[in-house]
């Protein structure tokens, strides 16, 4: 039987305080976000300042860059240690709208591109994703970011997987070869629905850097209505997301 004294009461209180600190630090700190006037706030009404690092996942392999170099958690830990609380995770539209791309496994994607050394690196550092489809691997990345208390902005960077950006790559402006507005709406709705119950996905950037020879300010203003409709569509699929509109020539994030 333990005899309660002033000394061991103090020790007990200190131990409980330490335990509470440990539990608090290991619990996810991410909450849904919304706007209040000009501010972004969480469910408690506290102002949230997003500090986002860009993590490309829109290039030809359609996988977050660097997973062939280091384990995921090591990368995520470093992002947090650098003071970031958010990742702007890019994705190509075809990941959501083209089954022949999204259904490829990570192994198939890298083999098709002749990236055998990179594939070996992924097998060494992140072996659990080798046989995942590309869309499953994208979900895995988002989930792992959440496990590391990092919020995610889903950024539709481009349509066809590849380097961005050129003024003549066919991905730049409404009506370009690879920028079909209806397909774009379909892809955004699918992605919003896919992450509807994913707490750390807090926002969506509708498109990166509108550009190209077909763009002009007049056309952009006409498309503002399309952007508003798109935001409404996204919110129908995922009511907790905030969205950003791409201005003429560059993105907001």
TrEMBL record:
Q: Which residues form the signal peptide?
A: 1-26
Q: Name one GO molecular function term.
A: hydrolase activity, hydrolyzing O-glycosyl compounds
- Ranges where the Glycoside hydrolase family domain occurs: 72-224
Keywords from UniProt, A to Z, are: Glycosidase, Hydrolase, Signal
Q: Name one GO biological process term.
A: polysaccharide catabolic process
> Entry's SUPFAM superfamilies?
(Trans)glycosidases (SSF51445)
- Which PANTHER family does the annotation name? CELLULASE FAMILY PROTEIN (AFU_ORTHOLOGUE AFUA_5G14560), OS04G0481200 PROTEIN
Which family is it part of?
Belongs to the glycosyl hydrolase 5 (cellulase A) family.
Q: Which protein is depicted? A: Glycoside hydrolase family 5 domain-containing protein
Q: Which species is this UniProt entry from?
A: Stephania yunnanensis
Write the lineage as a comma-separated list: Eukaryota, Viridiplantae, Streptophyta, Embryophyta, Tracheophyta
């Amino acid at each position: 039987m333990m005899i309660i004294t002033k000394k061991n009461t103090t020790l007990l209180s200190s131990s409980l305080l330490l335990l509470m600190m440990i539990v608090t630090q290991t619990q996810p700190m991410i909450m849904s976000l919304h706007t209040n006037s000009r501010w972004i706030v969480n469910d408690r009404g506290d102002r949230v300042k997003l500090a986002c690092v860009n993590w490309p996942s829109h290039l030809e392999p359609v996988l977050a860059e660097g997973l062939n170099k280091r384990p995921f958690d090591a990368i995520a830990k470093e992002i947090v240690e650098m003071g970031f609380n958010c990742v702007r995770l890019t994705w190509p539209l075809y990941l959501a709208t083209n089954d022949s791309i999204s259904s490829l496994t990570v192994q198939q994607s890298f083999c098709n591109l002749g990236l055998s050394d990179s594939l070996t690196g992924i097998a060494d550092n992140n072996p659990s994703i080798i046989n995942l489809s590309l869309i499953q691997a994208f979900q895995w990345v988002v989930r792992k970011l959440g496990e590391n208390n990092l919020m995610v902005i889903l950024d539709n960077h481009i349509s066809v997987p590849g380097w961005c950006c050129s003024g003549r790559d066919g991905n730049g402006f409404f009506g370009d070869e690879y920028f079909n507005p209806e397909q774009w709406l379909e892809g955004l709705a699918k992605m919003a629905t896919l992450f509807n119950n994913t707490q750390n996905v807090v926002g969506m950037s509708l498109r990166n850097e509108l550009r190209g020879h077909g763009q002009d300010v007049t056309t952009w203003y006409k498309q503002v209505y399309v952007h508003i409709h798109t935001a409404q569509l996204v919110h129908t699929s995922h009511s907790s997301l905030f969205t950003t509109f791409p201005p003429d020539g560059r993105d907001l994030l």
